Task: inverse folding
């Protein structure tokens, strides 16, 4: 099951602005190593889960993983071959709107080479470019 909010105040939302860089969540808060986005784009709950599974499988249940993003934004879609009008379509899935600089995942308790490889594998699952970052003083 993909990530989705348990409850929302409003069922549907407008597109909103995608401009600018990440002002919050752009530094390491928990772990020693992180995966930081370089470009913007939507990230679905399925993509978050796919990256999480990839990282945890590579780590073989060692270390600690933090997921720093959550899909709050509902995306609607009309069924195929439906005429225009009759309102907005039903919610299909949820996304996290990712901006450049946002830290997506953090790791601790593993060597830097292992973390770097795990994040490289996870980056392949994501729809935008990311980079590996390390905390000041962490042995890389």
Result:
């Amino acid at each position: 099951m993909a990530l989705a909010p348990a409850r929302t105040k409003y069922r549907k939302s407008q597109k909103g602005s995608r401009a600018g860089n990440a002002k919050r969540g752009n530094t390491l808060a928990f772990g020693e190593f992180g995966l930081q986005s370089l470009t913007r784009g939507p990230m679905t709950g399925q993509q978050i889960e796919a990256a999480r599974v990839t990282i945890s499988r590579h780590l073989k249940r060692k270390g600690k993983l933090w997921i720093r993003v959550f899909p709050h934004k509902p995306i609607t879609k009309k069924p195929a071959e439906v005429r225009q009008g009759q309102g907005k379509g039903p919610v299909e899935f949820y996304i996290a709107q990712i901006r450049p600089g946002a830290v997506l995942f953090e790791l601790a308790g593993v060597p830097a080479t292992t973390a770097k490889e795990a994040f490289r594998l996870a980056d392949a699952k994501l729809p935008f470019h990311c980079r590996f970052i390390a905390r000041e003083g962490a042995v890389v």
The beta strands are 33-37, 41-44, 64-67, 73-76, 91-98, 103-108, 130-134.
